[in-house]
């Protein structure tokens, strides 16, 4: 999955690879990961290493948000000709006053020294510009869910 060019691959492989890489952070924080994968989804034509960067950014943020003994739920599903990946955390949510800025370069809700504010903007560019998909989120006091839609077929 970590190759530079276009490849055909199962999106779950990249997500699982990222979870393995971030495994120490998950274990140290006692975060439970729940997987709700639709394993019938076809392989995607994708830039594998770039999508792995998206999963890394989204999962690393979810780990930070979930805190100690939190929960992250990863769901995959077909959605109107797209493959949707949802990454949900049980954290406090993004404050309403910041929600319209989360994709802005250098904007972060993290404490000084914990994040550059580049991950979500980069992730959005990879999903939208490189893959023709869409990246959005929902957030409230119960947590945050990032939704990545990726085309099931390249046109």
How many beta strands in the DSSP annotation? 7
Low-confidence stretches: none
Which architecture per CATH? 2-Layer Sandwich
Taking the alpha carbons of the first and last residues, their distance comes to: 21 Å
Oligomerization status of the protein chains: single chain
What's the Cα radius of gyration? 15 Å
SSE-based structural type: alpha+beta
Short précis:
This protein is an alpha+beta fold and 155 residues long. The protein has helices spanning 11-21, 23-29, 48-66, 119-130; strands at residues 6-9, 32-36, 44-47, 71-79, 82-89, 134-140, 143-151.
Topology:
Elements: E1 6-9, H1 11-21, H2 23-29, E2 32-36, E3 44-47, H3 48-66, E4 71-79, E5 82-89, H4 119-130, E6 134-140, E7 143-151
Parallel strand pairs: 2-4
Antiparallel strand pairs: 1-3, 4-5, 5-7, 6-7
Helix pairs in contact: 1-3, 3-4
Walkthrough of the structure:
With 155 residues, the protein is of the alpha+beta class. It has one domain: Heat Shock Protein 90. It contains four helices and seven strands; from the N terminus they run βααββαββαββ. Helix 1 (11-21) packs across helix 3 (48-66) and helix 3 (48-66) packs antiparallel against helix 4 (119-130). The protein is globular and about 35 Å long. The mean pLDDT is 89.
Q: Which features would summarize this protein structure in a list?
A:
155 residues, alpha+beta, Heat Shock Protein 90, five-stranded mixed β-sheet, two-stranded antiparallel ribbon, 7 strands, 32% helix, globular
């Amino acid at each position: 999955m970590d190759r530079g060019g276009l490849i055909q691959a199962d999106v779950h492989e990249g997500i699982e690879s990222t979870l393995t890489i971030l495994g120490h952070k998950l274990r140290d924080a006692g975060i439970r990961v729940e997987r709700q994968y639709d394993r019938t989804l076809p392989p995607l034509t994708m830039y594998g290493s770039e999508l792995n960067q998206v999963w890394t950014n989204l999962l690393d943020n979810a780990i930070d948000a979930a805190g100690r003994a939190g929960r992250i739920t990863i769901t995959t599903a077909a959605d109107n000709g797209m493959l949707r990946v949802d990454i949900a955390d049980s954290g406090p949510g993004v404050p309403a006053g910041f929600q319209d800025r989360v994709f802005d370069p250098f904007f972060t809700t993290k404490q000084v020294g914990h994040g550059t504010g580049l991950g979500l903007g980069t992730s959005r560019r990879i999903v939208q510009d490189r893959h023709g998909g869409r990246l959005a989120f929902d957030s409230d006091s119960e947590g945050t869910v990032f939704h990545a839609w990726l085309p099931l077929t390249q046109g």
